[in-house]
Amino acid sequence: MSSNAFDVLVIIGAVVAIGALLAFLMVLVRWHRRKSRPELPPETAESFRGWVAKPPVPPPRAEAPGAPAATEAEAVAPVPAPAIEKPAAPPPSPPPAPQAETPVASVPRAEEVAPEPPAVAAPEAPKAPVRLGLGLRKTRESFLARIRGVLRSGVKLNEIYEGLEEALIGADVGVETSLKLTEAVRARLKNDARPEIIRDALKDEIAAMLEKVERPMADPQGAPLVVMMVGVNGVGKTTSVAKLAARFKRERGPVIVAAADTFRAAAIEQLEVWCKRVEVEIIKQKQGSDPAAVAFDAVRAAVARKAGTVLIDTAGRLQTKVNLMEELKKIGRVVGRELPGAPHETWLVLDATTGQNALSQAKIFNEAVKLSGVVLAKLDSTAKGGVVIGIAGQLGVPVRFVGLGESIEDLREFDAREFVDALFTPGEEAASGSYAA
Amino acid sequence: MFDTLSDRLEGVFKKLRGHGRITENNIDDALREVRLALLEADVNIKVVRDFVEHVKRKALGQEVLRSLTPEQHLIKFVADELREVMGGAAREIDLKVKPPVKIMVVGLQGSGKTTSAAKLARWLRENRKRHPMLVSTDVRRPAAMEQLRILGAQVGVPVLDSHENEDPIEIASRALARAETAGYDAVLIDTAGRLQIDEELMEELDRLKAVLRPHHIVFVADAMTGQEAANVAAGFHERLGISGVILTKLDSDARGGAALSVRSVTGAPILFAGVGEKLDAFEPFYPDRLASRILGMGDVLTLIEKAQANYDQKQARELERKFKKNEFTVTDFAEQLKTIRKMGSLGDLLGMIPGLKKVAGQVDSEEARRELKRIQAIIDSMTPQERENHLILNGRRRARIATGSGTSVQDVNKFIKQFEQTRKMMKKLTRMGAGRAMMRGLHFGS
A217 and A309 in contact (C-beta within 8 Å)? Predict the structure, then answer.
């Protein structure tokens, strides 16, 4: 659409520039590699990660010697229908043993593959195991475990697990985490096919994952507790700050709120209204002023007035905006200079309706300003906020509070059990199925 | 950091390329990858199922199995299907109605309604020569009206005075009367954020709709939304009949599967994309672009736009000349670094270029970032003269730079050596025609 001379030049300019930087960085990386001790090369780590996300079906099959027979067994089981879910695909076994020749397999599959039996080319098979390296063994085992389970209890077990997996994915738990969870349960329960038992075990697994990372809030040792609230735009930071202010005022005495969102239009006014309602003090400057300075003033005031808590409301920023993340670091640094140890807590506010991007948010914010908690806002929506499970699992960041509405009282301490129960609320099935009709 | 949807599909298709042909079986294999990739991109699980089913049916129905390059066909099918779901070509908001054109903006809390309303008003004024008026009916969120007032002032669009203890319905009818008398030919009505299951507030929207009789009800969707995007959109659509969608926060690294969900559930076209916090960071949505991006063709077009915003023709030409003549100096390098940083993170930018995704991950590593910081410090500690001609850097100068930048002389040496290497490499690349790969990407894109 845009390929006139001007555009072409601009593109070349940009490419050359980026190319220059890229080339430069590549030289750097090479340099570093040469120097540094042999670590796991990033490619391996990458492919491993990618691997985990895939359901452990085809490659191990190709590798595991016992697998082909097992596959056939699966095919014999009376399920020709859900081909996509459990692909009856003849795995490209390295020794090209054409499916048609295996007597067991040929029965259900004949119609499907008959026209071109040798079409399944082999090249994919030897490649995958090499790339996957470390991850392979574990996955193969769980795969075999699955096969065994199927053998004993027929398809029903698979259906149960698939249903649970889908429920988890539908709750934004994410493919990777969902599979990890169901597999853990499966490894534990073996071929127990009682749905309630399986579901409860899954609940336990998730709750355990969330509870494992729970820890008490930092103790500021007599100084005001400084909590910095961060997050992307529109997740509910300001509202959460207001709710927390009310709560901390009750629990820890006077609260000072720092209006460090000096960017968004009317953010300060919004916070002011809240602070008036909650009757806590607000420290503010003009829109456009330095947020670090506002935070600094608030902490200083809190120390002087012996306040119990300082809540810093920062501007929403996408985690990909490098300079804005730097600004956040600066706020942390400046506050720490005034009160060593501060901010004692840094909480990421997440919108419960956010999908897998929340993981990216948590990771990048965590890199910039070590997160010590998550506030899961808007959990009163129809979304389940399942992505926090992955965040707990991967980053070890606990959920502290959940937001359940627009008024001040709608903030509750996070309860893993309650959360997990909500994750599996039966009503959810109906709700999430509604649109399809 | 994560496998993107494009990576996943790229992987699938690479695998397919290794095979001689597509059979019904490896179609299933490939489609399972498509399914997983879409799920990871937050496309609603049911939408995914339909989509994959569709692709399969279509692919099998046609003569894929017998074609010479079956993988090409499958790629095409997936691409076509994606484009279809995304709505084909770009769709423009229909303004050919009896003025004033009335646009109501609805959505969940925090999706970006107020900002989008202001951006749309600006767009109407700048690009369609309209005289729009903004009005907020959000009496719930503190300072929401104040926010719109400020944004309106920033984009130079009048905002109707409204107050938090007014009834939204009253505000709306007042807005219509005002537009009539003052001769505004577009009225944008911002509403309070609400959940689609909040009966009371949804009813308020019903009433607003009845009073306003809007030409457009625009649903604002956050590109980062997860599985619920489908249900939320469906909720609003069933109730109000959504006529268009604005997809916000597309400048994030979200994979944007929500767009697919919303689109396939409501059937309403995605009209605009919000791509930044600035009020001009608002552009028509190109479904085929997102589809291309999903299919791993790189988001070349977006890169072009970013480049256009940050470079001008002269600059680009000058840069190319310098590379060719080997006159690229440290000053130029520092300039580049600054410009590119403005455009976004290095990894993001690289990720938009086809074939460079793998590299993108590496460049975004913590290590690389630290290194970049060190380089910046070294450059900052050089005198202008040194930056123009790095050959004058003798031992003493290097020692000074090292002290000034808090690095070691080795670091400075390393930097200079690498800078020279880069220059050489770039010279070669420019000779070969560095833009060629890019051009190919372009053809793919369009």
Answer: no
